[in-house]
Amino acid sequence: MSLFTGWRAALRIARRDAMRFKGRSALVVAMIAVPVLGVTALDVTYRSVTPTTAEELTAAMGSADALFSDEGIGPIQQLPDAERYDRVDENAPVDEDGPSIDISTTFPKGSRAISIQSVPAGITTGYGIATTDIYEFRTSDELARGKIELVRGAFPHGKDEVAATEPFLKSAGLHVGSTTTVRNFGKKYTITGVVEQPDQLGAEALYADPGAVIAPWQAKADHDKKVLPPNTGSKEWLVKGPEGVGVTWPDIMAANESGVLVKSRQVALDPPPDSEVPLARKGVEAYPDSSGEMSAALVTVVAMAVLEIVLLAGPAFAVGARRSRRQLGLLGTCGGDRRHVRAVVLGGGLVLGGVGAMAGVAVGLAATAVFRPMIEQWAGNRFVSLSLNPTELLVIAVIGLITGLLAAFAPAIVASRQSVLESLTGRRGVRRSSRVLPVLGACVLAIGCAVAVYGGTAGDSALVAGGSVTAELGLLACIPVIVGFLGRLSSRLPLSPRLALRDAARNRGRTAPAVAAVMAAVAGSVAIATYMSSTMAEAEYNYVPSLNEGTVVISAFDDKTAARLPQARAAVERNMAVTGGHADFRHVWAGSDCNVYGDAENACGSVELVKPAGKAASCPLTGKGAKELAARLTADEHKKLMRSPACLVGIMTSGVFNAGEHGIVVADEAMLSTYVKLDDPAAAKALAAGTPVLLNPVFAKNGEVTIKAVHHYSDKDKQGRKLHPGKARTTTDSLKVYVAPEKYAATPGINMILPQRTAERLGLHTQASGSVYAVTHAPTNAEEQRTYGAIEQAGGGIWAQSESGPGRTDNSMLLILTLFAGMVTLGAASITTGLAKADAEADLNTLSAVGAPPGVRRKLSGFQCVVVALTGVVLGTLAGLVPAVALRMVDLRQALQVMRTQPTESAYTPIVLPWATLGLLVVGVPLLAGLLATALTRSRLALARRAG
Fold this sequence. Notes:
Layout: H1 3-20, H2 22-49, H3 53-61, E1 66-70, E2 76-78, E3 85-87, E4 112-124, E5 129-137, E6 149-153, E7 161-165, H4 166-172, E8 179-182, E9 187-196, E10 205-208, H5 214-223, E11 236-240, H6 249-256, E12 260-264, H7 265-269, H8 278-281, H9 296-323, H10 325-333, H11 338-370, H12 372-379, H13 390-417, H14 420-425, H15 436-458, H16 461-488, H17 495-506, H18 508-542, E13 551-555, H19 559-562, H20 565-575, E14 578-589, H21 594-597, E15 606-610, H22 626-632, H23 635-642, H24 645-648, E16 664-667, H25 670-676, H26 681-688, E17 693-694, E18 704-711, H27 718-723, E19 729-736, E20 738-739, E21 752-754, H28 756-761, E22 765-775, H29 781-793, E23 799-802, H30 812-839, H31 841-849, H32 854-901, H33 915-936
Parallel strand pairs: 5-10, 7-9, 16-21, 17-20
Antiparallel strand pairs: 1-11, 1-12, 2-3, 4-5, 4-11, 6-9, 7-10, 8-9, 13-22, 13-23, 14-16, 14-22, 15-18, 17-21, 18-19
Helix pairs in contact: 1-11, 2-9, 2-11, 2-13, 9-13, 9-18, 9-30, 11-13, 15-16, 15-32, 16-17, 16-18, 16-32, 17-18, 17-32, 18-30, 18-32, 20-29, 30-32, 30-33, 32-33
């Protein structure tokens, strides 16, 4: 019998066996197809989301041939892709105030062009007032296709129509047909349609035809001095070159002589040789293109998918081989040898692997097409098309096929070693577990952990990755021993969990791979989740707020706008979620107010808190000896110093209270409870009695502070100069103060609260400046727009500000990782439970025969599921912490290096565990797996046909 004849027969037997046991076959196909599906979807999504050079050019210039822009720096030289350029003569003066060139004179003859120019503007919304960018761009022109696309409605035409992006309409509460007014010069526009930028789906903007906004705005500003002129951006031009010629490299070089930068489609796609590019001859190179490089993350995903398939599908093939051992024994009686037995089992892997690979690729393509709109919104840009690379898809399918063979390889070897007698009688034989493998695994685990830790301390990410993978492989080798040890702990447990643990220990060949699959999936998820949680905690720590969280401040900066504060307070109280009353504060100054007369040098006064002499009042991380000190500090010591009152001076300043660098605010005791959150009757009593409250104790010495005031009056300040003629004078006053605890030194914007009567006694001037409110949540877009709308109706000029925090980090990645690990855990546990039920049918029959209640069967399935899920999750969590901690050690090393050269830079590198993710994985997923297995298992056995 030839080789092909033998394999043909083996494949025929494998196909018939797969059709006979449809449930197990479908399970194996699903296990192979799902990872193939994921990798296929990932590949197609990656290729589709990542734009090609041609697609990037279309997003930048639409269907035009080139994008022209005046850089305003004189003659330039550029690279063909226009990403890098430089002045021809770096020493030549640049006339920034000179007239701009007529850029149209640089276009090739016979060209057609449309312009793009933006201007920020305040516009009315469905809620109130908002600020957005308005682009003057003829979106209806064919040259705009690819850069701007119409979603619904119509393009704007004429001087009183605009189009809007969908994100803008959602935030503004408007729709097609709504009208909006550009408040800067009072003109109304009708929204005629919804447009989008295919490469920036989240952009909030309005689009109008050229001349519809900027020109009438400028005309109004020319005739009305109360109207500020538009602050326009630079104008760009989309240029369509002569038919059949386009915009060539000589055209670009000619435009460069006038200081115009040109990005040409045909030149970027087919650049000239470096010998023809003057800037390239100077040694300037283009930025490296990394789009063709396959990331390490993608390789890791593919490797993990293969590992998951082998670990999950391997036990299924092993059980299938045991279920078919009589058939395989009959094959031996008919003259077949071990080679033919292996071929039959491997044929099963080939058949099921091929079906799973083809199904995975097909469903992956279909899923990507179905979920394309969702993926585009998540990625922030449209697919030009679904980018399919046949070679990559074929490789993915082949990997799925080979993985099926790999999963069947070990069961094939085991099946071929069984004697014909054992196969026909059904005896499994006794095979002791390897004693060498666990010892080797423990050694590899220790070596891997040591390498990862060393890589972390040395700052080598490659060593961290290698050590983490090595440690995980060592732990994989230890799993059979761990499962066996768990079986020994079952003696004191009730019947069902005892049977589940002993069954897992007795059938380690089935249990260990499933536990390993769970561990591998959970380890990756925990590693990434832990690293992400740690970096988010670091970002939150390093963030410097401008206000205390949970507060809103309205502020005016001159006496005219201060008169409108009552209307502004009413707007805030009506439109925002305020709690309690408000705390008013006043601006304090000496001499002439620098907010009014600060344009000229020495034309206004100043007020400052004087630091006491000595080292205790100065930050050791600034000034002489700071670097030497930083070189000796650990990250924790540096963190403590950076949060000391002396080092917080200057960091927590904020312009919201109009208090300048000195941080002195005139207010009463309401400021303590509303903004500072200082709940101390003694502090409130001190303010009421005229004693200042000092929040930063570094300015105090023996319970007193020194205030230095320079009373300088400007000649333009007629009233002040009349009351205070003569030269400027300087006063220094010492005041008894209430010193707040050190933690209040971190209060943004305020160092000291000064009672008004005390300020007047010191000869200082004060003026109502604003109010502070406590709010239950940060204002929404709608609340902010309503508030600004009401303030503008009252005359405007008052700013309402709130603390948004360091940015609410999108936790969708953590959720995806948790769901992925949870699904793998549920799948592995369910597969193992199903295999256990199929493999232990005789044991279950014996249980029923000796009178076990029907519920024992269901409980047994549930606890079998829990054993696999819980063991894998716990081991995976421990394995995942190794790379996460080691990578944070790399970050710590880098942060310390920066801190020792720049002592005020933070070196805080925390390790924060994602407790929500860990709790869901360690408790929720195993519990859910056990409950599902219990609910889906039948209590009574089906009647079995008697053998023979």
